[in-house]
Write a structure and sequence with these properties.
mainly alpha, 0% strand, globular
Length: 216
């Protein structure tokens, strides 16, 4: 069947709204009286929440950010009346991932000042290609253990996504391959300032030792 444009656009708007939930901002204010955007890297994401408030805040923020990327992609296509695994179905799913990530990057509920989209991207990838998501998590963990740089680990995981899709799973769908490349480039783009700091030797490592333990 043809792509259901009215439903598709409505679903992507809903996914954007879901992605716009500023988990770190709301959690920090509600439980710690702190706006994480005023401390540390001033980024409204899970990494800065770990840095500023410690694991007791960072972990729930991370899990919720993953969930808000996963849930719209898993749930909303089921109401589209599209047949699973058709091109239209896949277009809808990848569109929902991008909409959710854009919501996290530019949240309507937080003055369009969001995070860098890594956790929310992971949630979307888990919904679309769980096997490749597992590879990304493994790459992230390995690079983080070796370097303690979250930014470098995130970019390595992003680069692993299209490589896993194309080389390990040999994905025949050009939609999924193109999606993997676009999402990889988006993550790298959001880390462009981190790339500069890494090259200059100015990037901060993340130390998981509780609130206020890491250099801003």
């Amino acid at each position: 069947m043809d792509f259901p444009w009215v439903y598709g656009i409505s679903a992507m708007v809903l996914a954007y709204v879901c992605g716009s939930i500023p988990t770190s901002v709301w959690w920090g204010r509600a439980f710690f009286g702190v706006d994480v955007r005023e401390h540390g890297s001033r980024n409204a994401g899970a990494t800065n929440t770990f840095r500023v408030l410690g694991p007791q805040a960072g972990l729930p923020v991370l899990l919720i950010d993953i969930l808000k990327g996963f849930a719209p992609v898993r749930v909303l296509p089921n109401f589209s009346q599209l047949d699973p695994d058709t091109p239209a179905w896949m277009w809808l799913r990848v569109g929902l991932v991008i909409a959710t990530v854009l919501g996290h990057l530019y949240p309507v509920f937080a003055g369009f000042r969001g995070g860098k989209g890594v956790a929310t991207s992971l949630g979307g990838v888990l919904a679309v290609h769980p096997g490749a998501a597992g590879v990304c998590v493994a790459v992230f963990a390995l690079v983080f253990i070796l370097t303690r740089f979250v930014s470098l680990s995130s970019m390595a995981a992003a680069l692993a996504f299209p490589l896993a899709v194309g080389l390990i799973w040999r994905e025949p769908s050009p939609i999924k391959v193109g999606f993997a490349i676009v999402l990889c480039l988006l993550v790298i783009y959001t880390h462009r300032e981190n790339i500069g700091r890494l090259l200059r030797g100015e990037e901060n490592r993340l130390v998981l030792a509780g609130r206020g333990s890491s250099k801003p």
